[in-house]
C-alpha cells in the first residue's frame, strides 16, 4: 500500500475543470468575505422579521383537487351542496341522562346561539332542534299539519318536553339529529369558504380555536359534553399540534448538533453548521411570508426537511475542511479548496433536491403544490447559504485543534471496515450484490401489490386512534344511525322538473342500484321524502308509497321538504349516500357504480353528476393521487437522471446512481403496503423527498471517487480512499438524519409518525444503496475504468 498517497489533490484534479466559472466565483466570494457576511446578516434580519408574521394556514379549497370534474360540479352548485360537504357536526351530550331535560334544553339553545354567531358559519343552513328549519309534518283527518320541532309555545314543562319528543319522532330525526339513546343531539354547522367579515379564506385554525374556547370548554364547565366532527375540526387539531411539531424540531436539532460534535469534535464547525442550517430555515420562512404564503398542516414539516438537507451538505464541507487542514492548510486556503471541490457536486445535488420537490406540482391538490413551492424555496435558500455563506464562515473559524487531532487519528487508522466494504468493487462481489438487490426488488414488487390509494382507517387517519377527534367520531358512529361518510350525487333536471314522474323514477332506480353496492348503508334524497309524503297523504298506507304520474300529486309531495334536499328552482336534488367507511375501495366501488348506471340508462334531459360530501371529495382526491402518483415518480427519476447525466456525462454513472434510489422507493412502498398506509396527501410527498435527498449521497461519493480515479487509482483503491473521506460523512449523515426523524414516531400526529418512519427507512436505505449498490454497479458497468495504482 502506498501510505503517502496524496488524498487531497489540487481542485482541478478533484473535479471536472470549470476554471473560469470557479475562479470567478472563488475570487468574488473570498476577496469580499466581510461584504458577504454583511449581506447575509442584513438579509437574515429582514427575512427573520418577516418570518415572525408567518402563521399556520389552511383552506378547504386547497385540500381538494379543484380542477377535478367532481369538484367542479361541487363548486358549481356549492350553495345547495354545502350542508353535505364542508360541514361540522357538533354533538351536545347530556351525561346525566336524556336530552329532554329543561336545564339541558336551555343549555342546548345557548350552544346553538353561540355557534350561530361564530364568523364563517353559514347561518341560513345551520340546523339543530332549536333552528326554524327543524320541521315536522303529518297527515290528519283535517289535512297536512306541520310545525317546528321545538314550538313557539315551548315552556320547558313536562308537557312541552313530551311534545318535543313526539315532534322529533314525527320529523324522523331519531338516529340522525338525535341519538338513538336520546342522550345527545347534533347541531349541523355548514361553513362558508370565506370569512364574511374579512372576505378572506376562512381561517380554520382560528375558527377551531374559537369553537373550542367559546363552545367546547365554556359549556363543558356547565356539565354537558361537546364533541365536534368535520373537516374544519381535523385541520384545527392539526394546526393546534404545531407546537408539538416545533418541539420535535427542537429535539431533532439538538440531537443532530450533539451527533455532529461527536463526529468532528469541533465546537466551532458544529456551531457554524447548525447556525447556517437554522438560518436557511429562517430565511425560507421569511420568504414564504413575503410571498404571501402560510404553513398548512402538511407543509409545516418542510422546515425540518430543509434543515436535514442543509446538514447533509454541511457535513461534506466539514469533512473536507478537516482533511485539508489536517494536511497543513490554513483555514482560508482550506476553505477555498473545499469550496472548489464541492461547488459543482453540491450545486448539482441541491438542484436534484429542488427537482424532487418541484415534481410535486403535477399533483393538482393545493396543499401538495404549496408543499412543493415551500420546499423549493427552502432549497433555493440552501444553495446560497451552503455554497457561499458556509465556506466564508468556515474560512474564519476553521477547525479546532481537537478536531484536527480527531482527523489525524482517523487518517492513521487502517479502516478495516471500509477496506472490507471496498471489496464490493471486486467483480464477483459486485455481481452478488446486484443479484441480491434484484431479489429485494422482486420481493418489494410483490409486497407492494396491496398498496392502496386513500385512507384505510376510520375517522381521521392523520390523528392517532386515541385522539380526541377519533374518539368523538367513534361516539357518533356508536350512537347514531347516520354515517359520517357521505357521498353526495348531484341529480340535475331542467328547471322546475325535479318532481316529474320520469325524474323521480330514474332517481329511484339509481338509489336501488346503489343500495346493492357493498359499503352503501342508506340513501337520503328528495325522492324518499316524496314517497313518504305520498303515503302520509293516503292514511299512511304503504301501498301508496310510490310515485304518481299525476303531476299535481308529485308537486304536492314536494311541497315543504327540507331545503337541503332540493334547490328553490327544483332542478338540483342532491342524493346522499351514507357509507360504511371512506376506504379507497368503498369509494371506488360507489364511483364505478354511478358511472355504470350512467352508461346503462338513457338519462335524457336528466344528469347524474358526481360528487360532493366528504366521501365524494375524498373520492376525487384519491383519483387525482392515483393518476398523478406514477407520473410524479416518473418525472422525479427522469428529471433527476437528466441532472446527474448532465453533471457526469455518462449514462452508466447515471444508472449506477439512480438504481439504488429506485430500489429504496419500491421497498418504501412495500413497507407502506404491509403497514396499511395508503398513498394519500400525507404520504405521497415522502417518495419525492426521499429521492431528492437520497441522490446527494451518490453524487458526492462518485464525484470524490472520480477525482481519485483521475489520479490513476484503480476503482477499488479509489473507492477505498473515497470511503475514508466522503464515505464517513455520507454514513454519518444517513444515520444522523434517520435518528433525527425517528423521534417523530412519538408524535401525537399519526401522519407525522408515519412520515418519520418512512423517511427513516429512506435515509438508511439510500445511504446503504449509495455505499454498497452504487459502487457495485460502477464495477460491473465500467470495468474499463481501472487505474494502475492500487492500495
Q: What number of structural domains do the residues give?
A: 3
Under the CATH scheme, which class of the largest domain? Answer: Mainly Alpha
Instruction: State which percent range the strand residues make up.
Output: 5-15%
Number of strands: 9
Main sheet strand line-up: 7-8-6-9
Shape: elongated
Tell me briefly what this model is.
One of its GO terms (cellular component) is plasma membrane. The protein is of the alpha+beta class.
Structure, explained:
With 791 residues, the protein is α+β, with helices and mostly antiparallel strands. The protein folds into 3 domains: 20-52 and 241-457 and 620-785, Multidrug efflux transporter AcrB transmembrane fold (Up-down Bundle), CATH 1.20.1640; 66-108 and 116-205 and 219-239, no CATH class; 494-605, no CATH class. The protein has 27 helices and 9 strands. The strands form 3 sheets. The chain has a 4-stranded antiparallel beta sheet. β2 (135-140) and β3 form a beta hairpin. α20 (526-536) crosses α21. The chain is elongated, with a radius of gyration of 32 Å.
